[in-house]
């Protein structure tokens, strides 16, 4: 009986030690990701770039917007509209007015959706720690990428999958499935790292099948301010 007790106690200690080691590795990874993101955010404020947003409705382009983006003295993003090409509205005052109201609703919808998706960028060190601590982490693949997958990150039942470069550690890809105003939403985002070390969102695609709408984003022409 004593031998059984000692064996059981030993297994429990071993199990606790494994859990502790795993938690320490996850905390260490979260710290590295948070530190990399903090340094990247500082570097990002030295840049200006262009952003192209395209809204597709039923497979047809409904709006194409190109903006110049930079950070202002207050540290907030400033967007300057360069070009805005909207699909033509129907003729006739009443039909045109209805179409304008529908367009306003769509724009408000996607403003709210963007705010929701911004939460999946894990903007604070605490958010990164919360995600990594509960995420399933796969071993690095042949390209040195870690795969982290978590659920109920922002909205109950959602999923967030991150591909993280072990060496940097910068995020290279983000895949999100969530809901907004009752609609299923799927988003895929890819990141690019410049020679300076700046890691930025390059391409993004958001699909809302229930509304037969798709939003495409491309950030490009990054220039370091003098």
How does this model look, in words?
Helices cover 35% and strands 41% of the residues. It is built from three helices and ten strands, in the order αβββααβββββββ. Helix 1 packs antiparallel against helix 3 (125-134). The longest helix is centred in the N-terminal third of the chain and has 43 residues, at 2-44.
Summarize this structure briefly.
The protein has 226 residues and is an alpha+beta fold. Helices cover 35% and strands 41% of the residues. A hairpin with a 7-residue loop joins strand 5 (145-151) and strand 6 (159-165).
Give descriptors for this structure.
single chain, 3 helices, 226 residues, alpha+beta
Largest sheet: 10 strands, antiparallel
Mean pLDDT: 82
Rg (C-alpha, Å): 22 Å
Poorly predicted runs of 5 or more residues = 11-24
In the sheet with the most strands, the strands line up as 3-2-1-10-9-8-7-6-5-4
Number of DSSP helices? 3
| Count of distinct strands | 10
Distance between the first and last residues' Cα: 76 Å
Sketch the topology as an H/E string, one letter per element: HEEEHHEEEEEEE
**Principal-axes shape call:** globular
Beta fraction of the residues? Answer: 35-45%
Summing up helix and strand content along with how strands pair, one would put the structural category as alpha+beta
Percent in helix: 25-40%
């Amino acid at each position: 009986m004593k031998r059984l007790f000692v064996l059981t106690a030993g297994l429990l200690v071993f199990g606790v030690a494994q859990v502790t080691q795993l938690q320490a590795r996850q905390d260490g990874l979260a710290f590295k990701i948070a530190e990399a993101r903090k340094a990247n955010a500082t570097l990002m404020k030295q840049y200006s770039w262009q952003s192209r947003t395209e809204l597709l409705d039923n497979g047809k382009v409904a709006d194409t917007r190109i903006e110049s983006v930079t950070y202002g003295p207050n540290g907030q993003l400033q967007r300057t509209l360069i070009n805005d090409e909207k699909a033509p509205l129907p003729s006739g005052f009443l039909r045109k007015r209805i179409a304008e109201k529908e367009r306003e609703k769509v724009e408000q919808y996607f403003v709210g959706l963007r705010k929701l998706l911004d939460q999946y960028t894990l903007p604070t060190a605490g958010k990164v720690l919360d995600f990594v601590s509960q995420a399933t982490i796969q071993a690095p693949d042949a390209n040195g990428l870690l795969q982290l997958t978590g659920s109920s990150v922002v909205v109950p039942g959602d999923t967030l999958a991150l591909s993280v470069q072990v060496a940097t550690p910068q995020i290279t890809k983000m895949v999100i499935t969530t809901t907004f105003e009752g609609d299923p939403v799927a988003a895929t985002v890819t990141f690019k790292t410049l020679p300076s070390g700046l890691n930025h969102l390059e391409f993004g695609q958001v699909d809302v099948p229930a509304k037969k709408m798709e939003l495409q984003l491309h950030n490009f022409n990054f220039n370091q301010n003098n």
